[in-house]
Each structure stands twice: as C-alpha cells, then as structure tokens.
C-alpha cells in the first residue's frame, strides 16, 4: 500500500519499486489523500473538471505500473488537515487491505530544504500514514471486521536519510513514461523530462538514477 498526498507523488517517489514488487507477485494499492486539483495547469472552467482530470491521470499512471486499485480520499489540495477522519480512513484501509509494506513520505524529513518536496500536504500525509500504521495493529482503535493488522515494513520516500536505494538507471524511461500521464501538470513534457534527468541524476553517487528510501522494520515486541 502506497500513500501519496496528490496524484503524481507516488510516480515521483516509488513507481519502479512498486512495479518490481508487483512482478514478484505482490498486489499494490494506491491511496491519494487530496484531489490534486490545484496542481492542474490546464485551463479548465471548474474545480470539478480539474479534479476529474487529475484523477484520470492518476488512474492512467497506476495502470502503467500495475496497481490493483487507487483509493481517492477526496481532500482539498493545499488545505489538508490532520484529522481523526484522515487517520481513521487510512487505518481502516490498512486493516482491510493488510499490506506487508506501506510506502509514504518520510515524516522524519523536517529539514525544510526543498519547498516542493515537503510542504504541508506532504508532511501531514506522512505523519497520518505513520500514525495509522501504529493504529492498525491495535484491535480497539477503529475496529474493523478483518481485525487488526501488523505492517512489517515502511518505505519512506522523499527522505534525507536513505538506507536503501534501488538502481533504476535502466528503468528511467519507464519512470518518465509513467510521469508523462500527468499532461495537466507537465504540459511541455520534453522540457520536464530534460529537467528531471538533470536534477535527479547521481543524487545517489552509486547510480545514475535511483529510488531512495528510509526503510523501517516495524518491531512488534514479541506479540
């Protein structure tokens, strides 16, 4: 289960990693916290049109990766609040889907060095996902007919302290093809593609291109 704040967050963070896990036999589910409507650069008449465009683009990108289902939580882009409703929705999804691994932004990345990477919606999504993984292993916090669920690992993308990197040098064209689904976000995709390759090249000195994570094993204290 991979959680993003907006359509396209997960395509920046972990599409090759998720695709590879699907190839290994896992089922993948996406959860998108907001509608992403304020990231739509395409000129359209109404907010609902922007929402529909962004959701359609997310579904197209998820299909390319092989994601089984996308859950849209429907919050307003740029105005996400940490509420019990948000934590409840995420917790119940974890209990229902029972993922071994949960992907999200890194809630520990609070150096505020990049205004695009860790703005408000991203930070709130990160913390809410982290808290929901804890809540899901409790029988009494938001009870579910499937009972509790204990996630085994969390993969934090957008981290400033990675401890695991996947070499995606041979998959960079796939990743860019997935990102090309977001025509409303990147109207001149050739320019964006050139920028992406320049900006993200050798962020990990071991590889030309990589997906980097802080992976956390979840200790269950023997029960």
From the structure above, extract its key features.
4-stranded mixed sheet; alpha/beta
How is this structure best described in words?
This protein has 7 helices and 7 strands; from the N terminus they run βααβαβαβαββααβ. By secondary structure, it is an alpha/beta fold. The strands form 2 sheets. It has a 4-stranded mixed beta sheet with strand order 4-5-7-6, covered by helices on one side. Strands 1-2-3 form a 3-stranded parallel beta sheet, sandwiched between helices. Helix 4 packs across helix 5. Helix 5 links the parallel strand 4 and strand 5. It has one domain (2-217): Rossmann fold, CATH 3.40.50.10320.
| Strand order in the sheet with the most strands | 4-5-7-6
What's the name of the CATH homologous superfamily? LmbE-like
Global mean pLDDT: 95
The CATH topology corresponds to Rossmann fold
| Overall SS class | alpha/beta
Assigned CATH class: Alpha Beta
Q: Which overall shape is indicated by the principal axes computed on the Cα atoms?
A: globular
Our measurement of the CA-to-CA distance between the termini, rounded to an integer number of angstroms, reads 23 Å
The second-level CATH architecture is 3-Layer(aba) Sandwich
State the low-pLDDT regions, or none.
none
One letter per element, helices H and strands E, the order comes to EHHEHEHEHEEHHE
- Counted up, domains total 1
**Major beta-sheet overview:** 4 strands, mixed
Instruction: Provide a count of the helices.
Output: 7
Fraction in helix: 25-40%
Strand content: 15-25%
Number of strands: 7
């Amino acid at each position: 289960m991979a959680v993003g704040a907006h359509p396209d967050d997960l395509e920046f963070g972990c599409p090759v990693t998720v695709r590879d896990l699907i190839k290994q036999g896992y089922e993948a589910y996406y959860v998108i916290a907001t509608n992403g409507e304020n990231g739509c650069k395409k000129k359209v008449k109404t907010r609902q049109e922007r929402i529909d465009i962004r959701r359609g683009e997310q579904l197209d990108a998820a299909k390319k990766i092989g994601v089984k289902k996308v859950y849209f939580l429907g919050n307003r882009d740029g105005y996400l609040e940490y509420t019990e409703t948000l934590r409840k929705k995420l917790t119940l999804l974890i209990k229902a889907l029972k993922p071994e691994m949960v992907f999200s932004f890194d809630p520990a990345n609070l150096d505020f060095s990049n205004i695009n990477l860790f703005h408000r919606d991203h930070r709130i999504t990160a913390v809410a996902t982290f808290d929901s993984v804890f809540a899901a292993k409790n029988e009494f916090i938001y009870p579910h007919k499937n009972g509790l669920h204990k996630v085994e690992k969390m993969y934090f993308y957008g981290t400033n302290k990675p401890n695991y990197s996947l070499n995606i040098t041979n998959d960079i064209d796939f990743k860019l093809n997935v990102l090309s689904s977001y025509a409303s976000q990147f109207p001149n995709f050739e320019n964006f593609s050139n920028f992406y390759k320049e900006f993200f090249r050798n962020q990990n000195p071991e590889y030309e291109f990589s997906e980097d994570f802080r992976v956390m094993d979840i200790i269950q204290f023997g029960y």
